[in-house]
């Protein structure tokens, strides 16, 4: 498909709109960091081009443009959704990307081959977590994994641009997806002050065992027992709707009993922004207690929530063993990184009792958060595509 131009008033010309497909590989109905990145890209591209979000979330109760707008705070005027059955694309994967000028795949696991004029692979993490669920389901996953692997090994060079969301993801990409993929780093664009005010809309979120809320609540209980007074602990998000998720939420509520703790299992984005604005300290513990060499997926791959908390003036206190938060937070300059729950409590006590230290780190953290902002992300993305697709132009507002 060749490039084209169109004439505007006064005789000036500019490139005709580019047909863009943005593929959201995660197939669940929950929204997270990948969904936010897709919204940022789609919103910026749709100002000048034709944009479709290609996805596998079932139409009934699945993804909608209003839901994505409410979750992300990004305006998506003109963006369309295109549902494709996941089983069908395993047999005919070219249907995902064929016909687009630009195909952007955001993928965990094995990506689909790219058949557009220009193809970009955004590696979220080369996921290999196939152990959950009943035995029959694990067997099906192994078969699916084998088919996807064969397909991928015949097609990795179909992507002209490969970018990872963090150094952590970039380090693991070649060993899992093959040495042909040497990805560059392009951190996600975290939310800034230009978000569209979204109507309240509850979302699935981070109340799950992998986010270590139980361990953090145990640490907060220890702080309270040690004399910390006048502080409130808030945890926003929602539990999985599975039996395991319901049971875990019960555990969290039990641990919170008798403490000044606010557990929000169905928080909406405006409320989440308000909670961040009121908070002074931000905790993150994904990866704690895990064997990250055996299962690197258990760490936080990037962690937009850490950047958003820093931008709001919270001082981050994050787990220091692989993953994105370790790259985002500069120890003792923009926050603290910990390896034991005792260290988590020690750094938190310092922030609770020394306002000068807390204020200094908060100001430095806000400056650091700007380097991960939405404008920087879009400029980096457009810069990588300029030599391949010059008619795309700038993604700036």
Report on the structure:
This protein is an alpha/beta fold. It folds into two domains: 5-189 and 373-392, 3-Layer(aba) Sandwich (Rossmann fold), CATH 3.40.50; 209-370, Rossmann fold (3-Layer(aba) Sandwich). The chain is 37% helix and 15% strand. It is built from 13 helices and 14 strands. It has helices at residues 33-45, 65-72, 86-91, 135-153, 167-177, 213-225, 243-256, 269-278, 304-311, 324-328, 341-353, 355-370, 374-385; strands at residues 5-7, 13-15, 19-24, 50-55, 80-83, 102-107, 118-123, 161-164, 184-185, 233-236, 261-264, 281-284, 315-319, 336-338. Helix 1 packs across helix 2 (65-72), helix 6 (213-225) packs parallel to helix 7 and helix 6 crosses helix 11 (341-353).
Shape: globular
Helix/strand order: EEEHEHEHEEHEHEHEHEHEHEHEHHH
Strand count, sense and barrel status of the largest sheet are: 7 strands, parallel
Total helices: the number is 13
Poorly predicted regions: 1-8, 193-205
- What's the mean pLDDT score? 82
The CATH topology of the largest domain corresponds to Rossmann fold
What is the CATH architecture term of the largest domain?
3-Layer(aba) Sandwich
Describe the strand arrangement of the main beta sheet, using strand numbers. Answer: 5-4-3-6-7-8-9
- Rg over CA atoms, rounded to whole Å, is 22 Å
Q: Span between N and C termini?
A: 27 Å
**Helix percentage:** 25-40%
Total beta strand runs: 14
Query: How many independent structural domains?
Result: 2
Overall structural class, as computed from helix and strand content, comes to: alpha/beta
Percentage of residues in strands: 15-25%
Broad CATH class of the largest domain: Alpha Beta
